[in-house]
């Protein structure tokens, strides 16, 4: 019985790789550094930002990059250029909640990178019961222990949860933790054949398909 649907943020709940690529290059330009290529950005997309940036821009000063990135991020959020959750995805979250399921987010972002989604007036506030990120969990994906705090806080078992994500690392974390996993392929960044088939319970081409897919996997919430 699936009681909780745990959702990844980037390229699952909202499409962010392309906009993040633009944002990060704007920060690099402000630092006087050359832009990265899209291929380089895609190569380690899904890794925590400050772990990925030395590969995307070798020799970068992370202590300078971090504050600049957050400044640019705030502007992009305020301008509606990033982290815009489509109405149909919000409707899907509503359906999951109405079915009696708990909805939570688990992301590789840090607290400051997700802070705007924690605001009391954010569209997610009434729809999700918690956001787990790199600053309130001891382990990050693809480590299966990324779910430890969530499971401890909720008292749920892995068998009662399904994780929805877009990357092989998401699948490895969920599968290793004993959870069902739904691969969301909407962004086009990953193909299904890139995933370890052992960990993929189902795949969807658009996020709203998650409602019917969760019903198929786990039946009515109890």
TrEMBL record:
What Gene Ontology terms for biological process does this UniProt record contain? DNA repair
Highest taxon of the source? Bacteria
Q: Which InterPro entries match?
A: HAD-like_hydrolase_sf, HAD-like_sf, HAD_2, HAD_sf, PGP-like_dom2
A Pfam family name for this chain?
HAD_2
Q: Name one GO molecular function term.
A: phosphoglycolate phosphatase activity
Gene3D superfamilies to which the protein is assigned, alphabetical: HAD superfamily/HAD-like, Putative phosphatase, domain 2
Q: Which GO cellular component term is one of those annotated?
A: cytosol
Protein name per UniProt: Phosphoglycolate phosphatase
The scientific name of the source species is: Actinoplanes derwentensis
């Amino acid at each position: 019985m699936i009681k909780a649907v745990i959702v990844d943020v980037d390229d699952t709940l909202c499409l962010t790789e392309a906009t993040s690529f633009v944002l990060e290059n704007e920060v690099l330009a402000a630092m006087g550094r050359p832009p990265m290529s899209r291929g380089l950005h895609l190569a380690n997309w899904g890794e925590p930002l400050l772990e990925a940036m030395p590969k995307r821009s070798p020799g970068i000063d992370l202590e300078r990059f971090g504050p600049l990135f957050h400044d640019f991020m705030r502007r992009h959020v305020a301008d509606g250029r990033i982290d815009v959750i489509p109405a149909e995805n919000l409707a899907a979250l509503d359906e999951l909640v109405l079915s009696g399921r708990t909805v939570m987010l688990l992301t590789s972002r840090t607290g400051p990178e997700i802070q705007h989604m924690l605001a009391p007036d954010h569209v997610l506030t009434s729809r999700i019961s918690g956001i787990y990120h790199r600053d309130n969990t001891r382990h990050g994906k693809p480590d299966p222990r990324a779910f430890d705090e969530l499971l401890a806080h909720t008292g749920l078992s892995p068998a009662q949860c399904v994780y929805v994500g877009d990357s092989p690392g998401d699948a490895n974390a969920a599968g290793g933790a004993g959870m069902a996993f739904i691969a969301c392929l909407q962004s086009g960044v990953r193909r299904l054949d890139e995933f370890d088939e052992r960990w993929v319970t189902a795949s969807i081409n658009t996020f709203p398909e998650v409602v019917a897919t969760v019903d198929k996997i786990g039946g009515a919430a109890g």
